[in-house]
Design a protein that fits this description.
2,3-Dihydroxybiphenyl 1,2-Dioxygenase, domain 1, 39% strand, ten-stranded mixed β-sheet
Length: 308
């Protein structure tokens, strides 16, 4: 049994030496900057979360991730078990936070009690006509030009030094379930896609992916869900025209099934647009997958050597 069961990933934190440059990239990426001072910058998407991405002035680097607990009572339970404090969350939406560090020192902020915002309507999208289902009649399909519409943060990927130690740490505290474990052999696994345990409520194929990388522990990437495939492609064109650095895509993953498009922020951190991912419940259990399943695609370009 885990100490608590988290509901979702909440946000990612970074440091950067130029907040104006980060603001410009985030706007091209499809996030809205909602709070800014001389030291910090917060950006949100179109969903109810008050912020998804935070940048603090400083040397460039990953500064941590946030996970959302179901209640303030769960925060108290976690704090008691970990010998930690429940503190106010100094960020848009307020709420409370318990700050922990995983076995590799990654900062993990578990939050509850945030004030949510009114979700923005998704871009109006005409339905798709397939060869077997032609439902769009008397209507022309026209897609908007501009950044993608980021709705929410879907998952975070961390490189770890010891897969089994990190797996146990995250499962024992937050109730994660393995969707797919990456096995190099019957006796050696190097990573796992972990989803939230929401019982019979469907949840993303993975909220956290941890992998024992030859590069050592550190940030791998953060993935933001966009409205749909047309929205993802519009965002691809916007980032390309803005001179952003592409990483990998557009393609469709095998594990999780998402259509993906990876980019680098101005300091080399990988951020992903995705849409159309798998949804699972507790009844779907766990699977074992290969390294080729991890890096392979159903369609699209092969994974570059920089991914990992």
């Amino acid at each position: 049994m885990s100490i608590i069961k988290i509901e979702d990933v909440a946000f990612v934190r970074f440091q950067a030496p130029d907040l104006d440059r980060m603001r410009d990239f985030l706007q091209d990426f499809g996030l809205e900057v909602i709070d800014r001072d001389a030291q910090r910058l917060f950006a949100c998407g179109g969903g109810p979360s008050p912020f998804l991405h935070m940048t603090e002035l400083g040397e460039p680097g990953f500064a941590g991730l946030g996970l959302r607990a179901a209640s303030l009572d769960d925060l108290e339970t976690l704090a008691t078990a970990e010998g930690a404090a429940v503190a106010p969350l100094d960020a848009p939406g307020g709420g409370k936070v318990v700050t922990l560090h995983d076995p590799d020192g990654h900062r993990v902020e578990v939050i509850a009690g945030q004030r949510t915002t009114d979700a923005e309507p998704f871009p109006a999208a005409a339905s798709w006509n397939s060869a077997s289902d032609r439902r769009r009649l008397h209507q022309l399909k026209r897609t908007a030009i501009g950044p993608s519409h980021v709705i929410r943060l879907g998952h975070v990927v961390l490189n770890v030094s010891d897969f089994r130690a990190s797996e146990r740490w995250y499962k024992d505290r937050f109730g994660f379930i393995t969707s797919d474990e990456i096995a190099l052999s019957p006796t050696l696994s190097v990573g796992a896609f972990l989803r939230c345990d929401l019982g019979e409520t469907p949840t993303d194929h993975h909220t956290l992916f941890i992998v024992q990388s030859p590069k050592g522990p550190g940030f791998n990437h953060a993935a933001f869900e966009v409205a749909d495939l047309d929205d993802l492609m519009a965002g691809h064109d916007r980032l390309k025209s803005a001179g952003a650095v592409p990483e990998w895509g557009v393609g469709r993953h095998i594990l999780g099934s998402q259509v993906f498009d990876y980019w680098r922020d101005p300091w080399g951190h990988t951020v992903e647009h995705w849409t159309d991912g798998d949804l699972l419940t507790v009844a779907d259990g766990s699977n074992t997958a290969s390294l080729q399943d991890l890096v392979g695609v159903q369609w699209g370009p092969p994974a570059p050597p920089t991914m990992g």
